[in-house]
Amino acid sequence: LMQLFRPLDMLGWVYRTIRQGIIDMAAMFRLIDSEVEVEDVPGAPALIVNRPTVAFENVVFGYEKDRTILHGLSFEVPAGSHVAIVGPSGAGKSTIGRLLFRFYDPQSGRILIDGQDIAQVTQASLRENIGIVPQDSVLFNDSIGYNIAYGRREAEHDNIVGAARSAAILPFIERLPDGFDTEVGERGLKLSGGEKQRVAIARTLVKDPPILLLDEATSALDSRTEQEILQTLRRVSEHRTTLAIAHRLSTIADADRILVLDQGRLAESGTHSDLLRAGGLYADMWARQAEDRPAVEPV
Ligand code: ATP
Fold this sequence. Notes:
alpha/beta; ABC transporter ATP-binding protein/permease
């Protein structure tokens, strides 16, 4: 009998993994209507992550044949470090995230995680290892507990509570009439932008991935909520390899390294103070965004 159940169990796991992957992708890239273009190579092994390093090696990519978006991009994210990608609109920042999640394959060059080419491993195992905190999270018409555990039926209640605590949404949930069983979404309780983000953070924590891809919130959060969310994200990403795609510079000034992308090429890289001293594109962008910044700035 077990022989019958094992494949079924496996199928369930594959289904949940794929579903979770699709939800993360859809949420981050709003590409739910796009076709998935990549396939696993036959007999592909699973990605095994011991040291979660990420490396782009001469990556050339365009969505269309005659329009190259990334022109031979190379960079490394050491295990456990926090790297931010900034640059003008259309520079290719989100494209980097889509390639890392293997929504597309590069035309040439390689993307490596812990030394393994992501095009050569299963997509399910790749996506298991990357947690995405998107700018706009998708919530389901279900309980808040379900929304946190989504795609992981095996998640233990303690695990869900722990994730909610780390995402700083536990006190809010405990005040709800039915706690974790409170219905949210269209038919239930409406959550604010900040609460939705915290649910997304908790969902990522249940998954407990070694690599985080943060897509900065552009949705209008008031600046206090935003500062609080940033603090939570900082805590959550502390021991994880983190790639943050940032539209505003004030949110990533404390990154270990900032990559400044311009028209699909790496224009500059360094710490916030290196880049200010260099007086290049980053320093210009920083000066231009000065008016939008709150009075207290990160150093
Ligand atoms: P922003 O800061 O405005 O979000 P970005 O740096 O994240 O910009 P990308 O979203 O990576 O930029 O887009 C880079 C380029 O690729 C843009 O010129 C964009 O028009 C193009 N592009 C993005 N997605 C697609 C797609 N699905 N098909 C064709 N071209 C695309």
